[in-house]
Write a structure and sequence with these properties.
- With 342 residues, the protein is an alpha+beta fold.
- The chain has a single domain, classed as DD-peptidase/beta-lactamase superfamily (Beta-lactamase, 3-Layer(aba) Sandwich), CATH 3.40.710.
- It contains twelve helices and eleven strands.
- The N terminus is likely disordered.
- The longest helix has 15 residues.
- Helix 2 packs antiparallel against helix 12, helix 3 packs parallel to helix 8 and helix 3 packs across helix 9.
- The strands form three sheets. It has a six-stranded antiparallel β-sheet with strand order 2-1-11-10-9-8, with helices on both faces.
Length: 342
């Protein structure tokens, strides 16, 4: 794959951000606005946490229709929210499409998917054992996670640097959150498909879902950051949640295998010492770059409270974008203030 220069990448990013408005909007439910009281109670709950409590937007989709939509005065339907780690689920979904296309297998070894110049000179037995599956479920055991230097472009060879640094654990041994697991997935998808990650997703996912406005930060190597760096509208986050709620189907067409969606939303590993912790939305299991939750739900999750929560028991999706400190407490508030009222 021929990598874009930073200047070309910046120009492309500007082009992406200047696209026309998204298409295929959700219709509004007959009882649209019925969760307004719950939204205000949720806002008060996060205010009571103290510190930073910016509630940027909320959108609730019920039975495929907008039940509630809220934007802070500084935001709106066309605003591109920073997703932080909610970006990861989009990257994992690109892996799913590549598997469906016969281009990848989740048990492929990472060293077999990267060119020699992106690998350490010496391939350890540990590195040789690392596969895509353990990247997907945050079980690579990689020892470093230089998000800042990769995202800023200061780290010129992110892939090689991360792999040369070695491992804390043997791949598959335990859960260990590392955003460069997802960065490596972005690199692998791009090299395998011959397209930047966002272009592959545009073809497979964004265009069918009517998502036209987005931006994805790139590394100095010319790859989308994968584990972070995606900016997208609130409704687009809702569309991604609805896509998972519908098990990979959109407008009657099966875009991505149902089996992949179900695996992605199911526990592939447990975060707390390998054991399921009931009542802990950070200890109920991790799927393919997404978190398992109470009530049989699963979520895209980004720092400071960027959520798209897929709720099969309610046939609903809850999207929240915000900038808060104690996300654990806020997430519990979301269950009582919003989920229980749907």
């Amino acid at each position: 794959m021929k990598h874009l220069s930073l200047a070309a990448a910046a120009a492309l990013s500007m082009l992406i951000c200047s696209c026309n408005a998204d298409t295929q909007h959700f219709p509004k439910a007959e009882n649209f606005g019925s969760l307004g009281e719950g939204v205000q109670e949720y806002l008060q709950d996060i205010r009571d946490l103290g510190g930073t409590y910016e509630l940027n937007s909320i959108m609730v989709i019920k039975d495929g229709k907008v039940l509630e939509e809220y934007y802070d005065c500084c935001y709106g339907p066309d605003f591109l929210n920073i997703c932080w780690s909610a970006s990861k689920t989009f990257t994992a979904t690109a892996v799913g499409f590549a598997v469906q296309d016969g281009l990848l297998d989740i048990h492929d070894k990472v060293v077999d998917r990267l060119p020699a110049n992106m690998l350490p000179e010496h391939i350890s037995d540990t590195l040789a054992s690392l596969d895509i599956y353990n990247l997907l479920r945050m079980a690579s055991g990689l020892s470093i996670d230089p998000i800042g230097p990769t995202g800023s472009g200061k780290l010129k060879e992110s892939t090689k640097t991360v792999l040369e640094a070695g491992f804390k654990y043997f791949p598959g041994e335990k859960y260990s959150y590392n955003s460069h697991n997802t960065y490596l997935l972005s690199v692998i998808v791009s090299l395998t498909t011959g397209k930047p990650l966002h272009e592959y997703l545009q073809e497979k996912l964004f265009t069918p879902l009517g998502i036209r406005r987005y931006h994805w930060d790139q590394s100095a190597e010319g790859f989308d950051c994968g584990g972070w760096g995606l900016y997208i509208t609130t409704e687009s986050l809702a569309k991604m949640g609805q896509f998972f709620l519908q098990k990979g189907q959109w407008k009657g067409k099966q875009l991505l295998d149902k089996e992949w969606i179900e695996a992605a939303m199911s526990p592939q590993i447990y975060q707390r010492g390998g054991q399921k912790v009931e009542g802990d939305d950070w200890g109920l299991g991790y799927g393919y770059q997404m978190w398992c939750c109470e009530h049989g739900a699963a979520r895209l999750d980004g720092a400071h409270g960027q959520w798209s929560v897929i709720c099969p028991e309610k046939n609903a999706v809850i999207v929240i974008t915000e900038n808060i400190g104690n996300t654990h407490v806020a997430f519990k508030s979301m269950w009582s203030r919003i989920y229980d009222r749907i």
